[in-house]
Amino acid sequence: METTLVLVILSLVLCHLSISAALHWRRVLYPSAFRVKRGTPALLNPSVQKSVEDANLLYEVVWSGLYVEEEKSVLRVADEELASLRRLQPLEVVCEDVLPRTLSDIRRLCHNLEQRRAHLSKEDFERTVLTMVYTAQRVAHSSMGHQRELWADALLQLYKSIKKDLGAE
């Protein structure tokens, strides 16, 4: 009787561990991408890159000067012609509603990326690169000291995650 009880308990513990492990690796990196906000176009899990042309456009926007301000809902593209493109509407949604803005959220993202074994989806890769752009801007605008070191460390961790995902580790 005791042996049966021990086996049942052990099997329940193993079942719980396997379910927990499976859920751990399926954790969503950007949960706000799945929450539709009022005033936001009905874009669930928004992404900028839907084609090669979109990827090239995103590269051009970042290269020409993409500024994601600390306050939510402020995104500036340095090139006015690029900024006026309707195709950049998903970029606004991603930068304003999806990307983490606080150091603690970015550090949590870095930890989740470090724990991840599978390759990033194209949406998560895109968001991680954009988070890296935002973090680099925060490093540049931070005053010297401990805060700047923390932002720089987060930037380095994001870079390592991107490098790992590209298989260049």
Automatic annotation (TrEMBL):
- Using the record for this protein, list the coiled-coil segments as residue ranges, or answer none: 68-123
What keywords were assigned to this record?
A: Coiled coil, Signal
Instruction: Work out whether the entry's keyword set contains Signal.
Output: yes
Determine the domain of life of the protein's source. Eukaryota
Signal sequence, renumbered to the chain:
1-22
The record ties this protein, via InterPro entries, to: FAM180
Query: What is this protein's name?
Result: Protein FAM180A
